[in-house]
Recover the amino acids of this structure.
């Protein structure tokens, strides 16, 4: 059971590698914009994509709206909700609020790949099940072959009556 859980985790991790790269790029852009101690997270729960950003700034004029604009204009993943914290000042935004405040996105949004991740996991589970069944069949054939071979070798010694 642990192997199956590890396998599912591995499939999910491989499917999420693109998101990790986009998150790393976002952190770099925020650092280049003058923010430090940047922490970003993208999560998807029940089809709602949420991005959380926490950062500090030496410039006291930097506010959560500055971070929200960078995320909206440069982060290529879908954003339904955005939560920002800059120097302890919080801002929460919905997709509609971001669109109303900053206009249309400045980046082409990548397709939402939640369905692709599910299909990938199911495909790999099917492949793993087929490989496992073939392995079990191979072990059974090997056992039958070895048992039959040892039975042939165990012929009783010929009986020679005493004369």
């Amino acid at each position: 059971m642990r192997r199956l859980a590890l396998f599912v985790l591995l499939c999910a991790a491989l499917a999420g590698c693109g998101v990790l790269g986009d998150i790393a790029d976002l952190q770099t852009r925020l650092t280049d914009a003058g923010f430090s101690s940047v922490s970003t997270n993208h999560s998807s729960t029940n089809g709602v994509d949420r991005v959380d950003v926490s950062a500090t700034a030496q410039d006291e004029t930097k506010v959560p709206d500055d971070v929200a604009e960078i995320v909206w204009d440069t982060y290529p993943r879908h954003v339904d909700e955005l939560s920002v914290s800059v120097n302890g000042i919080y801002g929460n935004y919905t997709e509609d609020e971001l669109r109303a405040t900053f206009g249309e996105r400045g980046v082409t949004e990548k397709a939402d790949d939640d369905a692709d991740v599910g299909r990938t996991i199911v495909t790999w589970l099917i492949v793993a099940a087929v490989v496992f069944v073939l392995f079990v069949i191979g072990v059974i054939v090997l056992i039958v072959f070895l048992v039959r071979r040892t039975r042939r070798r165990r012929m009783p010694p010929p009986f020679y009556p005493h004369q």
